Structure formats: C-alpha cells, structure tokens
C-alpha cells in the first residue's frame, strides 16, 4: 500500500501490527470524511449539485486507480465515512 500514490487516494504512512492496537496511519485530512462534509449540522458550506458530482468523480478516479494496479487493490468497504 505504501507504493500507492494518487491525488484521490489517502496516503498510507504506516501500520501498527501489535495486538490489540491494530491500526493504520494515514496522512492528516483536516476537513474530515466525505460523510462529515455532506452531513455537517452547521452547513455553512453549501454543496451544490456540481460540487457533489465532482466529489463522486474524485472517488471514482481513486477507486479506478486502485483497481488498475497490478495486483489490483479492492477497497471492500466503500462508503462516505471511509472517504477522506
């Protein structure tokens, strides 16, 4: 995963493999997940149709990149809380 470099894929920095603290370490994303952005209670930022379509296209580009790797990487749990 550390060889994965794409503007629409979060950068993997490392992993913790000692139980019970299994986790991955990624780059910091200050705006949070796509879910948070879409469902913010204080929606001071309006997400018009064009912006939402742009976000969907960005997600699709990232997934396409992963699927085209050799061997391909499959996300397995693609949903807005997992899109950063």
From TrEMBL:
One Pfam entry name: PK_Tyr_Ser-Thr
Entry superkingdom: Eukaryota
Classification via InterPro entries: Kinase-like_dom_sf, Prot_kinase_dom, Ser-Thr/Tyr_kinase_cat_dom, Ser/Thr_Kinases-Pseudokinases
MF term (GO), any: ATP binding
Gene3D superfamilies, sorted: Transferase(Phosphotransferase) domain 1 (1.10.510.10)
Keyword Kinase: yes
Keywords: Kinase, Transferase
Domain Protein kinase: 1-84
Name of protein: Serine/threonine-protein kinase CTR1
Organism: Acorus calamus (Sweet flag)
Upper classification of the organism: Eukaryota, Viridiplantae, Streptophyta, Embryophyta, Tracheophyta
